[in-house]
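From: lab user (bench 3)
To: helpdesk
Subject: output format question, protein + magnesium ion

Hello, I'm new to running complex predictions and I'm not sure whether the block I got back is the full result or only part of it. Here's what I submitted:
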Amino acid sequence: MLGQSCRVLQGEGTDPRAIEQIRSRLRRFKEVQTVIRNYKKDGTPFWNDLYIAPVKDAQGVVTHFIGVQNDISDRKKQEERIAWHANHDSLTELPNRALLADRLDQALRFVRRYHLQLTVMFIDLDGFKPINDTLGHSVGDKVLKVVAQRLSQSLRDGDTLARFGGDEFVIVLPNAGNVDEVNSIAERLLVNLSEPYEIDGKALTLTASIGIAQGNEDIKDPNMLVQQADMAMYKAKRRGHHNFEWFSHDINKKVERHVVVRHEIQEAMANGEFRLVYQPIFNAQRQIVSVEALLRWHHPVQGEVSPAEFIPIAEHTGQIIPLGRWVIEQVCRDIGRFRQLGIEKVSVNLSPIQLSRSRFVENLEQILEQYQVSPAQLMLEITENVLVNELTHAPELLQTLHDKGFTIALDDFGSGYSSLRYLHELPIDVVKIDRVFTSHIGGQQGKDSIVRAMLAIAAELDMNVIAEGIETAEQLEFLQDKHCTGYQGFYLGRPIAIEQFVHLIGAQQ
Ligand code: C2E
Ligand code: MG
Ligand code: MG
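Helpdesk reply: Thanks, we reran it on our side. This is the complete output you should expect:
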């Protein structure tokens, strides 16, 4: 560099504004500190941290300048990496939630300028968790990378694909066009994602559920579209996976209702608005052999709220845990009075959420101990959901409960994805035929064939069968004729308060 001006370090990537700043300060004999892009002799660029200071003589006149230069390219690279990581997901290299928020704002500005529709898709993989759990995280990571690639291949310039979390992705389409076009994009994504994945020489299959929300230039907060798409995605999942679903305002209403009900359940627990009613279960000789405890909520304003409505919400919010505990305790308090009436067993409905609690068995035993109730006095009703998706250790759990002497009943049998395998492999003592099937008895020809088949299978496997929802004499007769073991339904007895039982049976005795 001897004898040369620093200007030889400049090149086409050097910011002219930085040069101008240096010159103007030097003209005024001021010091300069800046970072500019300079070039080495071989043409490779570097970041130069430049400091130039004037040197004055005894009279205070500037005689020359001293400059110190530092190549800080490494530090710059580091900073860029940090900035990149703040905005990207390192596994898939896609924008993360932070950058997604920026892109949404950008997209909204674009949509406003050109009067377009802003479309957001929320994508969640179906069955990713089991892959991660059984094949390990490294396989899970590889799957996610391929998913990211497949998704980005289906998009156009100007669309944003971001990883929202775990196995969730969000796509922002600022110019997707009408509903038909968006539908065909969603179809294409579903098809692409369902192609087999070849990971470490193994072929895996995977599907996804997609929720879609769309808004025009009037939207205030584009994040709302993400939330709406998320809700719609849940609806797609409930409809049975590998689906897409549009957000509709009905879903929104439902969610608002959730928020209200959550609050009200809290109040109701504090104010004692819950109570139990019991529905009798008979044997073939029309004797009451047990009763099923059913939860009732008397809302101060709305009156009776159906458990079919509030139990799913309580499950969603986790409130089913204290509520379910209260049910078991109340049953234990009532069980002695039933015993005096000659009824030895009470049936309790359990939510999958309760069962998935790690200390479920210990807590249950502790309550029983407190009220001096034995497991033989309780029938635990579980639904097929417990077996299908909620609980991986369901077989062991049921075996433990069975070994301790509880009676295990499979509730609503036939209403979900019943598998005969469960009946065969799990310690199920009683199958409760869902009332949908009971209602088919006496109707159209052939519609009762499922009930016939269930009764035949149960007899073969040496299981008891309780038919739910018997509403007519004809249904009762049909079931008696097929040697059903238990009978429950409005025709025989509605759910009533325990006091009414005492009254009713007391009068007969
Ligand atoms: P489930 O366990 O299958 O209970 C039977 C439901 O069928 C009850 O509705 C009962 O009143 C109704 N039912 C009985 N016989 C007839 C009939 O002949 N015709 C008709 N149409 N219906 C009949 P309910 O009490 O509204 O309960 C609905 C569901 O809520 C229950 O279905 C159960 O899954 C859940 N549930 C109720 N109490 C509890 C509870 O304490 N804990 C949990 N986790 N779930 C509960
Ligand atoms: Mg039940
Ligand atoms: Mg049932």
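A quick orientation on your result: The chain has a mean pLDDT of 90. Let us know if anything else is unclear.
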